[in-house]
Amino acid sequence: MEVYSAARPCASEFARVSIRFLHTSDWQLGMTRAFLSADAQARYADDQIEAIRRLALTASERGCAFVVVAGDVFDSLLPARRVITRALDALATFTVPVFLLPGNHDADNPAGLWAPGRMPVPLPPAAHVLHDATPVQVPDLPVEVVGAPWPSRKPDMDLLGAALAPLDPAPSGTLRVAIGHGAVDSLAADPLDASLISVAGLRAAITSRRVSYVALGDRHSVTEVTERVWYSGAPVATDFDEADSNKALVVDLDPGGVAVEPVAIGRWHFVRRHLDLDGEESVRALADSLSSLPDKERTVVRLALVGTVDLATAELLDETLAAGRDLLASLEVSEGRSELVVIPADSDLASIDLSGFASEAVAELSRAAANSGEEADAARDALMLVRRLAARGR
Ligand SMILES: [Mn+2]
């Protein structure tokens, strides 16, 4: 393959070729999350678009010669028009070539957005969609990229392995960057998945100099598979259990080595806490830990609560959760994982200063509240209401 026209360097110059590029993936544009309120969802969508501009800025500030996006640029096959238009507008801020790979979420097929005529506005000139596995010359650089786009959501083969197998070794002095999407077999949850990427195959491709670096997408956390095979993780966190998202990778590559530096992009956080509540002190500790969270309006919290608490503690918990919901992107108490029992204590009832008929009613409610079931729940709610009314009367 003829890769240059003018000013072709001699072989000894080729040997010194060194290149810096930005590796990102899993933008998941258009993703919606059921647990986000409407305004938090809008903030998330805005931040995903802003992350594209931030990637462009990072590429230019860090002197990256090009950018690879290793799949799942969009979260669905055919996202809303507005999602695409905003994405393309942000893509136009890149000043270097950007190679976009269709992944499992945004597979390249006739029903998808990458099909001819589907884009509501033209792609910016810097953006190149990898529709097949033909090596593509990066303009003006001794670098080729070769991608393995997903034609469907469930391919029955190792697409990246198939893309790299027929390649000749990269011409001397040319660096070749492979771009793939999907789980590698060494980290797979399902070892029988036919689409798994063979790590042995990638190692063989690197050893035989068919490729110098493999840029992967699919895992949303920065993950080193081998020295020259990395997942970049998502630039904006998408879910719980992502150990290291909100990043992209600045990659320095030369024939002799590679240096990979994760850089911060996004600011969304997904936090899970399991708490054993036993009194007001434990709820105050929860309140403190919620109020010390950074980026609250971009933080999703899911609590699992267990323990036995009195009415005063349950009231404080309700207030704490209400305040948390005002500030956080989302605050949920996981129903399946929570087992919080509210049992009125004598101290709860002592604060209710009632006499006669009303006092007998409270005593009856408190007996009912000690049981379990719907009636007991109603009795506890009634007691909390009485406590609030009594407190207001004081
Ligand atoms: Mn993904």
Outline of the structure:
The chain is 31% helix and 22% strand. With 394 residues, the chain is of the alpha/beta class.
Your description of this structure?
- A six-stranded mixed beta sheet has the order 4-3-2-1-11-12, with helices on one face. A six-stranded mixed beta sheet has the order 5-6-7-8-10-9. Strands 13, 14, 15 and 16 form a four-stranded parallel beta sheet that branches.
- By secondary structure, it is an alpha/beta fold.
- It folds into two domains: 11-264, Metallo-dependent phosphatases (Purple Acid Phosphatase, chain A, domain 2, 4-Layer Sandwich), CATH 3.60.21; 269-393, no CATH class.
- The protein is built from ten helices and 16 strands.
- The longest helix is centred in the N-terminal third of the chain and has 24 residues, at 38-61.
- Strand 7 (175-181), helix 5 and strand 8 form a beta-alpha-beta unit.
- Helices cover 31% and strands 22% of the residues.
- The chain binds manganese (II) ion.
- Residues 26, 28, 72, 105, 218 line the site of manganese (II) ion.
